[in-house]
Write a structure and sequence with these properties.
Blueprint lengths: L1 H21 L4 H15 L4 E8 L5 E9 L5 E11 L2 H18 L6 E3 L3 H10 L1 H8 L9
Parallel strand pairs: 1-4
Antiparallel strand pairs: 1-2, 2-3
């Protein structure tokens, strides 16, 4: 799904960009193009997640927000995850966000994380394998 969205974004943004470079386009048209692109791309509920770690004591926490397709806030979540690595907190945030979204009836969602390692782990192995391998993310007992 991520590859299709990336391709769609590339195509939808290139065509107007060419014309915008050669012509003076009214701001209303530019805003309308942005709305069309956003509507086309963002048709699934979105989960934005993040994790953090205190540098002095290694205590970590995670959190996120679930928004509907139009961007309206549905629910937020946060949790102290104890001592561990930052990757554990970020993975825990993805897992918690998905659990919460699925409990609210959203079976297909888009997840956004600012950490490429999390994205690669999920894309390459799938969430089920990561849960099995990393066990309890929050405990720091990863391999």
């Amino acid at each position: 799904m991520a590859r299709i969205v990336t391709l769609a974004i590339s195509v939808l943004r290139v065509v107007p960009s060419y014309f915008m470079q050669t012509l003076l386009i009214p701001i209303g048209v530019v805003n309308e193009i942005k709305k069309v692109v956003r509507k086309f791309i963002w048709d699934l509920p979105m989960i934005n997640v993040d994790g953090a770690i205190h540098m002095m004591n290694s205590w970590s926490s995670m959190g996120g927000v679930i928004r509907e397709a139009k961007g309206q806030w549905i629910v937020g979540f946060r949790k102290a995850t104890g001592m561990g690595k930052i990757i554990n907190a970020k993975l825990w945030a993805v897992f918690t966000g998905l659990e919460l979204a699925w409990s609210k009836g959203f079976k297909k969602v888009e997840v956004k994380s600012d950490t490429m390692q999390v994205v690669r782990l999920i894309n390459n192995r799938g969430l089920a394998a990561i849960v099995t391998e990393y066990g309890n993310f929050a405990s720091g007992n990863d391999k």
